[in-house]
Amino acid sequence: MNTITDCTQLLDLAADHLAVAARHAEANACGDLTSPWHGLAGQIRLVAGGVAPICDDDEPVTPRPFGVEDHLSAALTVLDSIPPGSGPPDLLVWAWRVADILSLVTAWADEP
Fold first, then answer.
1. Residue of 21, 16, 6, 86 whose CA lies nearest to 51
2. Could you report the per-residue pLDDT of 57-84, keeping only the tens digit for each?
3. Confidence of residue 2 (pLDDT cuts 50, 70, 90)
4. How far apart are CA 76 and CA 101, in angstroms?
5. What is the C-alpha to C-alpha distance for residues 86 and 72, in angstroms, rounded to an integer?
6. Section 6-26 average pLDDT
7. Is 46's pLDDT higher than 90?
8. What is the DSSP track for the chain?
């Protein structure tokens, strides 16, 4: 099994998960610019850019109710796997922000 141990690769992987989560959130908005999902997509993209500068390829994504939650959780797992002192100084801030957004999405999923 291939394991990633390089901090830069881990940051890129987390950012990739965040970019996909943002695309899922935007797809959940269904083109409604006033949808909270649309605003959340922007927040997730900001966090992805803070974690690692990435190029968003804008591939179409099929909306799935838990797609955003899955990728946010995966990004948080990756960020948490980086040993203390190995990542950038603001790593904890970005991990906290991902956890904050994840808790928001989880709360939305529990609403009727």
1. 16
2. 565 555 555 689 999 999 999 999 998 8
3. very low
4. 10
5. 21
6. 90
7. yes
8. ------HHHHHHHHHHHHHHHHHHHHHHHTT-TTSHHHHHHHHHHHHHHHHS------------TTHHHHHHHHHHHHHHHSPTTTS-TTHHHHHHHHHHHHHHHHHHHH--
107's tokens:
């709360």
- CA 83 to the chain's CA centroid: 19
- Spatial separation of the C-alpha atoms in residues 24 and 20, rounded to whole Å: 6
Give me 72's structure tokens.
């946010």
pLDDT of residue 63: 54
Which amino acid, residue 102? L
Tokens linked to 5: 């141990």
Length of the chain measured in residues? 112
Structure tokens at 60: 């179409």
